Amino acid sequence: MIYLDHAATTACAPEAVQAMLPYFTELYGNPSNIYGLSLQSRKAVNKARADVAKAINATQGAEITFTASGTEADNLAIMGIARARAEVGRHLITTRIEHHAVLNCFQELEREGFKVTYLPVNKEGIVSVETIAQAITKETTLVSVMLANNEIGTIQPLAAISDLTRPRGIYLHTDAVQAASAMQLDVQALGVDALSISAHKFYGPKGVGALYLRQGCHPSPVIFGGGQEKGLRSGTENVPGIVGLAMALTLVNENGEEKRRHLTALREQLIEGVLAKISGVIVTGSRTERLPGTASFVIKDIEGESLVIQLDRRGICASAGAACTSSQSGGSHVLKALGLPSPLTRGNLRISIGYENTPDEITQTINALAESIELLRSIAPRRHSKRRN
Ligand SMILES: *Cc1c(COP(=O)(O)O)cnc(C)c1O
Questions:
Q1: Residue 70 in contact with ligand 1 by CB distance below 6 A
Q2: Count of alpha carbons within 13 Å of 154, Cβ hemisphere only?
Q3: 369-386 as b/e, with b when 16 or more CB fall inside 10 Å?
Q4: CA 39 from centre of chain
Q5: What is the DSSP pairing of strand 2-3 with strand 64-67?
Q6: pLDDT, position 388
Q7: Are 118 and 92 in contact (CB under 8 A)?
């Protein structure tokens, strides 16, 4: 099998699994108690907090809140900050290409009476800093722009956005879930007040995420109960998951440069190979401002899901856009925002490369793609457009 869907999820690193194991069996104490066994769990959670803070260049562990997913981190940041600052203003800004974990929060906030501006992006999927400047009003309290897009891998100019928001006292949140495995995250350089990550996207376990909140940024809680995580998200801490998240993030940053070079080389090999061998293919997103391991295409006269099935028959895992939107009809909101016509967006393919992939696997993938696309084009009636070979 050749796994090329790292944007959907990754295998847990063996070192992260090893680090987690004792907290399932011997060290199972509830971190909230005062006896020795519990103290060990509490220490492990606090060490993980410090390690995550260090990995993203936060000033202290107290700025890290552990959550049950990237989705929950996004919800806590967006719902929490918007509601906590509702007295200051009720206008919020985001983009049209956010993950649904972000977009659906803003839709809920609209139902609560907030006003939301959804910014357009250019053909490469990049939001312009000027459109943000124009959208800001005296009522604006929060801007949320993803660091890297999960479908097309485009990277957004967060530091330049921060230059606009910070002097105006507007909070800036970024969903960095896709970026964490492929960029060295630095909350100071990005200038953000809140940043979400999710362990299973960077070779950690599923079901655990983290939210960075700059000192002084106090969202309202979205989950109520026993007051864990400083009351921000009640519920007994997922101690093994938290330990695994911290270990995985530390590992990701080891030899980070080298890993990014490897991913970039394979991505370029794939894009060059596909463009050379297969007709009617467009690379979506930006050729330069993109995640090292993410390649995304639209392919003429092809249904993305049929192609994914053909690739699966050849032992290759890839996806037709985002994992969580592939079952939705109506197509990708991200490709629509790029201005691509809808017959084309049906032929959506995302290939997301991981550290363990090899040049040989990429060569096999290019060949399998060429074969599958030829087969599909030969059997499908050309409903949407004429073949132009
Ligand atoms: C996967 C993903 C999420 C959701 O993270 P989960 O931990 O799966 O809930 C949020 N945002 C982006 C950009 C993602 O890729």
A1: yes
A2: 27
A3: bbebbeebbeeeeeebee
A4: 33
A5: unpaired
A6: 46
A7: no
pLDDT digits (tens, 9 = 90+) for 28-80: 999 999 999 999 999 999 999 999 999 999 999 999 999 999 999 999 999 99
What gap in Å lies between CA 121 and CA 131, rounded to an integer? 9
| Dist. CA 371 → ligand 1 center (Å) | 32
Q: Which is it for strands 194-198 and 2-3: parallel, antiparallel or unpaired?
A: unpaired
Q: Are 225 and 237 in contact (CB under 8 A)?
A: no
Residue 209 Cβ < 6 Å to ligand 1: yes
- Give residue 389's pLDDT: 41
Selected residue with higher pLDDT from 379 and 312:
312
Q: 198 in ligand 1 pocket by Cβ < 6 Å?
A: yes
Task: State the closest ligand 1 atom to the C-alpha of 201, by its place in the atom list counted from 1.
Answer: 1
Model pLDDT for residues 251-277, shown as the tens digit of each residue: 999 999 999 999 999 999 999 999 999
- Convert the pLDDT of each residue in 112-150 to its tens digit: 999 999 999 999 999 999 999 999 999 999 999 999 999
- The preferred substitution site among 177, 319, 326 for testing ligand 1, maximizing ligand atoms within 8 Å of CB, is 177
Give strand pairing partners of 213.
Answer: 194
CB proximity list for 16: less than 8 A, separation 6 or greater: 203, 204, 205, 244, 247, 248, 251
Q: How many CB atoms lie within 10 A of CB 306?
A: 18
Tell me what the pLDDT averaged over the chain comes to: 95
* Residues β-bridged to residue 92: 116, 142
Q: What is the 3-state secondary structure (H, E, C) of 188-254?
A: HHHCCCEEEEEHHHCCCCCCCEEEEECCCCCCCCCECCCCCHHHCECCCCCHHHHHHHHHHHHHHHC
Residues β-bridged to residue 93:
117, 143
pLDDT surpasses 50 at 370: yes
In the Cβ-directed half-sphere of 243, how many Cα atoms lie within 13 Å? 20
Find the 38 Cα to ligand 1 centroid distance in Å.
Answer: 31
Is 217 an annotated catalytic residue? no
Which tokens hold the place of 101?
């974990």
Ligand 1 atom closest to the Cα of residue 101 is: 10
